[in-house]
Design goal:
Blueprint (H helix, E strand, L loop, with lengths): L7 H11 L3 H14 L10 H9 L5 H4 L9 H7 L5 H20 L10 H12 L6 H7 L5 H8 L3 H21 L1
Helix pairs in contact: 6-10, 7-9, 8-9
Length: 177
């Protein structure tokens, strides 16, 4: 895509983490899966299915957690509908930052990225209060806060690099004034 060799999974996880509107995309996906179950069963509108299961008192993302088949073109198109060229460039840049980190620190793995750091970064990215973190992670298809942290860790080296560069540009601009 755009001359970049990007894994579809990385692109999707990037959208889940960085797209401010991804909760809406995930809700559309849940409706799609409810109407077209992967097992070929009878489809129902999501609200009907949710009422059958919970009486409708829980959000759909807390109840239904369908597996995502990235081999299915319709699923991929639906979940990546909000993806931009800049998003794909960021995925490539973040993959490069992760690779550079691995080269500069032999034995470095994504697991070495601190959970607490990642956990602090996500509410800032999502502009949500700490008490809404778990709900926001679920609404984005990341299941829970721990799932969000695990998924986001691959992007943290690149995100931190972007943050440093932004700070340096801001400081340089302030000095020139």
């Amino acid at each position: 895509m755009d001359g970049l060799g990007l894994a579809t999974e990385d692109r999707l996880v990037y959208q889940k983490i960085f797209d401010p509107e991804f909760a809406k995309t995930w809700a559309v996906y849940l409706e799609h899966r409810s109407l077209r179950p992967a097992d070929g069963g009878r489809g129902f509108p999501l609200a009907v299915r949710l009422a059958q299961v919970t009486g409708g008192d829980l959000p759909a993302d807390r109840v239904f957690r369908p597996a995502v088949d990235l081999r299915d073109e319709q699923t991929v198109a639906l979940l990546l509908a909000g993806e931009t060229r800049q998003d794909r460039q960021a995925v490539a840049r973040y993959a490069d930052a992760l690779a550079a980190e691995r080269r500069s620190r032999p034995g470095f793995t994504v697991a070495a990225v601190r959970d607490d750091l990642t956990r602090r970064l996500l509410p800032r990215l999502w502009r949500c209060p700490e008490q809404d973190f778990e709900a926001e992670a679920s609404a984005r298809g990341l299941v829970c806060g721990a799932g969000a942290v695990a998924a986001a860790k691959r992007f943290v080296p690149g995100l931190l690099q972007d943050m440093r560069e932004t700070t340096e540009r801001t400081e340089a601009a302030d000095v020139r004034r």
